[in-house]
Recover the amino acids of this structure.
């Protein structure tokens, strides 16, 4: 049974249909990548799963239960946590305070402290900047903070929306390495990402979205080799291992 199953999901913004019957599955332990151009509906899909935007048809199943009408707070407490596009750290709060915001639904003080230590091990730069205003961090540091804050909620499934956006190439590699580490430590990941090459390189399975529809799906490696995907998202078909 899939950890997450989206069934024929529809979302409208007024008369505009942002999602036109999207279906996908995320199996426990996987990294599933969702790629597509701007405006394809990727962020709308994540926000619909998280309960942030209203759905107008279909269903969302998480851990065998429908969360179609579940409040976002209860979705988080059930183990489904999103890192939003643009990071959205809380300005005016320190790095430590931002991390603790991720644990606001938790009461297990020892567990919270243990998880803080794990965050410091995974993101040493955050420990160095614990008392610094989160808004003064670099883009890469803010992304690490947003991911650390989400991990403090003890997610079973982590939704990541454009984690590499606006980051230098060397930081993009680091963020994707961290995503793999988080997954290998036991957290299932649904990743929305415009850097299709990187997203598919770490994906067990992938989906391609265009204008509110899923148009292709398959194992990450197979999608990366697909001529359609290469032409649309990977800068053209490859020959002998190099881009044309």
């Amino acid at each position: 049974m899939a950890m997450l199953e989206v069934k024929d999901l529809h979302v409208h913004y007024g008369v505009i249909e942002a999602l036109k019957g999207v279906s996908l599955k995320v199996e426990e332990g996987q990294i599933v990548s969702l790629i597509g151009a701007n405006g394809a509906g990727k962020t709308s899909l994540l926000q619909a799963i998280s309960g942030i935007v209203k759905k107008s048809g279909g269903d969302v199943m998480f851990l065998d239960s429908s969360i179609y009408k579940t409040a976002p707070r209860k979705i988080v407490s059930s183990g489904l946590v999103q890192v939003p596009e643009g990071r959205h750290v809380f300005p005016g709060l320190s790095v430590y305070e931002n991390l603790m915001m991720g644990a606001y639904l938790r009461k297990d003080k020892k567990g919270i402290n243990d998880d803080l230590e794990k965050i410091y091990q995974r993101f040493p730069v955050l420990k160095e900047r614990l008392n610094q205003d989160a808004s003064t961090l670099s883009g890469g540091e803010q992304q690490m903070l947003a991911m650390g804050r989400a991990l403090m909620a003890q997610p079973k499934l982590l939704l990541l929306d454009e984690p590499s956006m606006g980051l230098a190439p060397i930081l993009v590699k680091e963020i994707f390495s961290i995503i793999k580490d988080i997954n290998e430590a036991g957290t299932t990941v649904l990743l929305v990402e415009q850097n299709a090459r990187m997203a598919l390189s770490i994906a067990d399975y992938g989906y391609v979205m265009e204008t509110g529809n899923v148009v292709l799906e398959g194992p990450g490696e197979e999608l990366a080799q697909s001529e359609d995907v290469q032409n649309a998202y990977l800068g053209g078909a490859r020959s002998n291992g190099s881009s044309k």
Q: What stands out?
A: The first strand starts at residue 4 and ends at 13. The CA atoms of residues 162 and 181 lie 18 Å apart. The longest helix spans residues 169-184.
